[in-house]
Specification:
There is one protein chain. Helix 9 runs parallel beside helix 13, helix 10 (about 275-305) crosses helix 13 and helix 12 (about 335-355) runs antiparallel to helix 13. Helix content is about 50%, strand content about 10%. A seven-stranded antiparallel β-sheet has the order 6-4-3-2-1-5-7. Strand 2 (about 60-65) and strand 3 form a beta hairpin. The longest helix has about 30 residues, at about 275-305. The protein is elongated. The chain has two domains: about 5-180 and about 215-245, no CATH class; about 255-394, no CATH class. It is of the alpha+beta class and about 400 residues long.
Length: about 400
């Protein structure tokens, strides 16, 4: 947690619903030809609980294929990526880092989750032998070097949706709704539940209006627990369930970010209006710190919304009040009080109009985001006051 907070949030965000990062894995028997005349297969949906690492807080989905004739027990994962990829960070941020399918034995798969104390849930699927054979052939085809890689999208194309697509293709799934209101709601809630509220807030700020769309019945099972719940409603295709419990820890949620933000705003207001040398210096330090944080945060929001190919970040209306122009105010803060005031007026008017137009904007803004907005608004009044003070001093 000592790393730059924005980079931490971004890595968690882009790594959504991915398993442990790997450079390569054994393909153990996954490319062996299938004996379609004598295969006896069992397919299971594997759902893993959230972990402590940032990339694992949404859990993981895999597919288990047991072939009793060929004596193999393989787990396929669609969420792997290679840290040794050239220009890894640049591709990671922009969203064109290639993910790939990998496989390992079921025993090795369980060992990892036992080590990290994450529960594993198995739903044995009741599908026809022909469909099992077809699906296994497709998995083996995907494991070929020319087919393994794909561009990851943490809402529409990830380790869960790839398996969901295969499942819906090879099994008669009833269209039961699991009540997902929006992509944002499900994506943001997971970090809060896992005790990583600040990560949840950062992701909430990065997500654009695209993530506020209401998913279709087919799209709503885009995260591990959602797919598990979706399949649980289809009793006809689940022949058995099993849970392997490894987790003995309790989640420490800590103080909610909104509480800390409100206390910070109260301190900021107190320091600004208490006429003492120490509090006035503290208020100025907070001014500069916020200009830096909001400027860097705004630059990240701009990049993710306008340049990256992460579609869930597109059309982000937070960019109206959270933008990189705050960085311009930093030198002006020291050079010209008058121009600092002018810039403060511009920021203030735009933010106020944005707040009044909130009802008509097709994007959800949580209470925590609104408190951050209020902090930015008070900073803007401080910039205006700085300009007015320069005017009255003449």
């Amino acid at each position: 947690m000592k790393k730059n907070i924005f980079l931490i949030v971004l890595f968690a965000f882009v790594g959504l619903v991915t398993p442990t990062v790997i450079a390569a894995q054994n393909e153990i028997a996954s490319l062996n030809p299938i004996d379609t005349s004598n295969s006896k297969l069992r397919f299971s949906l594997i759902t893993c609980d959230a972990g402590d690492d940032l990339y694992s807080i949404w859990g993981h989905t895999a597919i288990r294929v047991v072939d009793s004739i060929n004596n193999t027990d393989i787990v396929y994962n669609y969420g792997s990526f290679d840290f040794n990829t050239p220009n890894f960070i640049a591709k990671f941020v922009k969203g064109n880092l290639r993910y790939f399918i990998s496989s390992n034995s079921y025993s090795e798969f369980l060992y990892e989750y036992q080590y990290f104390q994450r529960n594993v849930h198995e739903q044995v699927l009741k599908i026809s032998t022909i469909e099992k054979i077809k699906w296994q052939q497709e998995l083996q085809t995907n494991m070929m070097p020319g087919n393994r890689f794909y561009l990851y999208n943490f809402i529409y194309d990830n380790c869960t949706t790839r398996i969901k697509d295969g499942l819906f293709k090879h099994a008669a799934i009833n269209e039961y709704s699991i009540g997902v209101n929006s992509f944002r709601e499900e994506v943001v809630s997971a970090p809060y539940k896992g005790g990583l509220g600040w990560v949840g807030l950062g992701i909430d700020l990065l997500l654009g209006a695209v993530s506020d769309q209401h998913p279709t019945l087919f799209q709503e099972a885009f995260l591990p627990v959602l797919l598990y719940n979706k399949i649980a409603l289809n009793h006809r295709i689940v022949s058995a369930t099993q849970e392997i419990k490894y987790n003995t820890k309790k989640v420490e949620t800590g103080i909610a970010p909104i509480t800390i933000l409100i206390l910070f705003l109260a301190l900021y207001i107190f320091a600004a209006y208490w006429n003492a040398l120490f509090t006035q210096r503290l208020a100025r330090c907070i001014d500069i710190s916020l200009l830096v944080l909001l400027g860097i945060g705004g630059a990240l929001v701009f990049y993710m919304s306008k340049i990256s190919i992460h579609s869930a970040c597109h059309d982000n209306y937070n960019l109206i009040w959270l933008h990189p122009i705050y960085l311009i105010a930093i030198p002006l803060y020291f050079i010209s009080k008058k121009w600092t005031g002018y810039l403060g007026w511009v920021f203030f008017i735009i933010t106020i109009l944005f707040m009044f137009a909130n009802y008509w904007i097709p994007q959800h803004f949580s209470k925590s985001v609104m408190v951050v907005m209020a902090i930015a608004l008070f900073l803007q009044t401080r910039l205006i006051k700085r300009g007015l003070d320069a005017k009255y001093q003449k």
